[in-house]
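Take a specimen:
=====
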Amino acid sequence: MPIIKILPHAEYCPEGKEIEAPVGTSICEALLDNGVNIEHACDMSCACTTCHVIVREGFNSLNEAEEEEEDLLDKAWGLQPQSRLSCQAILARENLTVEIPKYSINHAKENH
């Protein structure tokens, strides 16, 4: 199983964390299943950008982004070339390092 290293984030993962997740799982599902309560306002249906992450290592091992995801990413805060919506980025066999951006465009936080 690949390992996801989550870089420290003041709200969601203050000390950073390393988790294991099965191949074929989305980054968002893996984070949520391991106690990292990343925002996902659209319930992982690729309709918002609140689960935006930056994949610092292992980006090329992920499935290719669909046009719908790319269009949404254009609206994400802090967009970078390695940005993905974590609900759409599916794990392969390679380990990842991800950063959860400091901000989101979501005006109201969801309590998931």
